[in-house]
Request: fold
Amino acid sequence: MKKVSISDIARKAGVSVSTVSFVMNDKAVKMRISREVIEKVEHVAREMGYRPNQLARGLRTGKTKTIGLIVENISNAFFATLAKSIEDEAKKYDYKVVYCSTDNDEEKARELINMLSQRQVDGYIITPTLNLSEDICRLQAENKPVVLIDRYFPQHEEIPAVLVDNYEGVSRGMEYLIDKGYRKIALVSIETEMAHMKDRLRAYSDVLGRHGLQPDDRLVKIVPYSSDHEAALKEVVQLLASAGKDVDAVFFLTNYLGVLGIEAIKKLQIKVPGELAVLCFDDNDIFRLYTPTISVIRQPVEAIGQKAVSTLMERLKQPGEEPYPPHALIRLEADLIKRESI
Amino acid sequence: MKKVSISDIARKAGVSVSTVSFVMNDKAVKMRISREVIEKVEHVAREMGYRPNQLARGLRTGKTKTIGLIVENISNAFFATLAKSIEDEAKKYDYKVVYCSTDNDEEKARELINMLSQRQVDGYIITPTLNLSEDICRLQAENKPVVLIDRYFPQHEEIPAVLVDNYEGVSRGMEYLIDKGYRKIALVSIETEMAHMKDRLRAYSDVLGRHGLQPDDRLVKIVPYSSDHEAALKEVVQLLASAGKDVDAVFFLTNYLGVLGIEAIKKLQIKVPGELAVLCFDDNDIFRLYTPTISVIRQPVEAIGQKAVSTLMERLKQPGEEPYPPHALIRLEADLIKRESI
DNA sequence: AATTTAGGCTAAAACGTTTTAGTTCTTTTC
DNA sequence: GAAAAGAACTAAAACGTTTTAGCCTAAATT
Reply:
């Protein structure tokens, strides 16, 4: 059984292809198609189960009503939630989302952009990797709007980005730890050159400094990105081995690192918060349910997704070469969720 | 800056559109295009940054090299992992994946199928909702292959499905609990008419029966699908309130329910496994890290994804109306992961 | 009565590819 | 020396839409 096309309907209804098209696109009235013909066509179309071919439509109109979403890894809770919120929000504008994961690989990211561009998506929401700014600028030059999420390029203020206020979030967490009397605060971050993580790191140092505390290199662990689970775990275990003595608190800078941290703490049988206070950037079911429950700086994931979509939609509506607003960076506030771990 | 098309290249290289097409599709040799022209065209194409328009290509060839993936909810860990494994596997065959979530809503699922069909995906991998079999059969009739995952339609053996052996998995879990001496085993499931959950329930009863134990209705809690977090939690709390007396073990039939269960156990301060043994169908970071660690029946998520893709690819290769193999149901074995909770 | 306007439709081009069937030379073959 | 074969390309149709420009008839206006 073959798909039915607009001309099948035209033939069966005894009208022209154009007429059918007008009816299907609610332009029948404007095009002065008579009531009878409209009804006839609608009836035949329903009867034959007609569904317009979006490829053809997209080819003709240049619009696919699709946005390309590139995240780091769709199987990560943070990105999965973000993706869902973007999918839901896009639906409200009658847009479909095509997702893919970069696995934080620059080359793969480039390939994905290519692939989405070949598929003629109307716009992009991208969690960028390093060195992707050129490719992204090229998209903008082709008049395909892009909104970055979670990360951004500080040297490219013209590329809009929606993200949590990383500096402010970590600052708030640090202030809280210090306020509670902790002084030997360890930090676990992930190796990356990207600005959002640098902002988090900078906040850590700045707050320490502001309180007259010296950042101590031995308290800062940067886990290599490519290390496997076991290796990464080992690093964290090593850092926390002296908990209670040289370390009295630890701040994990991502969701993934926090989970790793819990594993290490469990392994070392560290008492939390007795021997070690724990704080993590990014929430996760596990932090809510672990014993003790883990305090977190929570990103407004849904809000990020929504804002990213609405920003993109605005750009998509812009008829021609309207000038982009210069203040393209949107930072949303993070919440400090106080739980038992500190 | 406009996109460059095949005819831009043709013009610039001083050849015909067909020649360019042949070169771009590696048919140049077969079509006896001279070495010089091939090089010329390739050079111009590279220089102009040509990227074939997949809409046009798809329209012409009828193949989009895209598969549509419909899951229940992409933000759920199980589906997110499954989606990632499908994406990765599809990539090996040079196929792209378009995902969407049904939220377990029949109507939404239908809409999604429609949308994917309009976008001319070549095949589908679907986590079906209830009453979707007709729509799926329609796809098959249109010669669009479908593979179900996680769930299936028992009355439609002709629709291929890849899923864990639910009956066997739950049986294995139950045997383990009974073997360990537990007799008052509670069950928490989610309300649904779908066969995969019925299989799990049936295994529970059958194993009890096989050991001369009477299934006790008061020990079985079926959480309504639509209930919110709080309401669902309340239900589980109520069931487990008598832990240590009327209940000595509990088997959660899904990932989500297990997480809910942990929350209830935490709230009630039940000692696990002292007062209550706990087992869950489906693994999750949380089960590995909670104290005590929770034993699970683990689904082979990656294998399901891979098998689903390879099954689909086989159908996609089939030239015409080859008869479908009748044994379309593929059940993969689940593992019992023994941890501290039992 | 001649022109305009309106009503109700349709023809055909265009979007960017792929692919079939040629076309035009040149070289072999008998 | 005519026919066949080969080499190197190209023209044009087709995929399924949307949309512009028009056609034809009937009614309204001058």
